[in-house]
Amino acid sequence: MSYTKSEKSLLFIVSILAVFFGHNASANAMHIMEGYLPPLHAIAWSVISLPFLVWGLLSLKKITSNHRKAILLLAMVGAYAFVLSALKIPSVTGSSSHPTGTGLGAVLFGAPVMAILGIIVLLFQAILLAHGGLTTIGANTFSMAVAGPFVSMGVYHLLNKAKVNQPVAVGVACALGDLFTYVITAIQLGLAHPSATGGTMASIIEFLGIFAITQIPLAIVEGILSAVVFMLLQNFAKPELREIGIMPKA
Amino acid sequence: MKLPHLHAHLHEGGMLSIDHWAQHSRLRGVNPYLKLILALGMLILCLAANNAAFGLTVALFIMLVINKASGVPLHYICSLLTVPLLFIAVSCLAIALDFTNQPLGLASLPLPGGLGYLSATQEGIHAAALLACRAYGAVCCLYFLSLTIPMQEIIMMLDAMHLPPLIIELMYLIYRYIFMLLDIQHRMTIAASSRLGYANLRSAWFSFTHISGNLLAASFSRSSNCLDAMDARCYNGRLRFLTHNTPLQPQHVAVCMLCLLAFSGLAIYLNQKGVDLF
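Structure tokens for the assembled complex are given below, as produced in the milestone run.
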């Protein structure tokens, strides 16, 4: 029995997924937990995320009014990201709880929409899985659903203009978006908990150092994963994505 | 569309066991707004008090309420308490330890290459311990919310708070699709394991990754089938559900207010007297 091209690429993706999840075991260190931010910080980060959420809502309205199918597809993408993050992985006791694929979503749907999708997935993760929290949802939204996706989208457009191969552009964009998420999380924690001797800067560097162990390999693998998924989507879902107007012109 | 809570695979210890306990909570008859006010009120008190003793008291109190009043078994609550352990461990390490130029505090570890010292200071350890206790109090308040208010009531309350209908609709759909995808995933896992797909680690990885990949393809085709089904039932861009009203009962309001008042009093007392664990 021989495999078709799309079956082969599916096989390739899932092998990459395997590596991805292998590294991802301790990734729930990404969500800032309930109770970790003082009230002022929690409010400030929520207020900072607010304009992006409004922007996201407006662009969501535009997409769904033009393409009715889009809202169902977006809901499905959100649910898929949630389910992937909740699955138990063989040989690893934990689950990854990083909302997987916000970078790829930003490339496909635009970063503003990911802010809305991201905050919903984060709320569900907080309530149904106890990953993250309610008072920290503003901070988590800013790092995972705003900062990361916007960097991904920006980098993707830059690389696209420079005529870089599209899957490579997607991969680099997603990896950089992931890295930026991790830097923002470290800054948020550092600002909230300045070190007694070295101040805020020292604390940020400490958080960067401690999270680097899991987050740098994770970012690289997420980049590769996103590129491969993007190729798969081009292979077997191109007409569907074109139809609802979210596939970038190849 | 059916409301998503009638699914057979939601057994105890299943994928979304928090959802199971929320749907079967003995506090379902209490007005959800009241439960929300209690949970958020305690959460805010926990953060505002910034006191380790207060955080642990709140944690114990909420655990008792979840166990006795809502009927969640104690062993399950204990297993939930291990969820945030990793984050607490990692971040408390970062707070307890400090980079310094000379050895400081209780113990210090010289860094290679003359970069300085990694010191554990008294203040750092106190800050980390205080944070861990405060976080546990806050996490228990979150657990109270998620173990006693089912998701459809949370979405309903957000709708009543005039969140944009588009977001409410997206939330209902995502909540529904989570169960749909978990159901597909569950059936694929049974099919795989009945064919010895999890017999050893190698095949377990193979099955797991294939299921994850197939889920993406399945979710794409399901979303377009779903729209057809909704169109056939006159979907016009607005989902409507039958909601049950649980009226406010005076004794519930009294108990809730008493809790909030008592804990505010405790927080003020502890902070004025300067009583704390550390």
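DSSP finds nine helices and no strands in chain A. Residues 54 and 116 of chain A are 9 Å apart (CA to CA). Further analysis is deferred to the final report.
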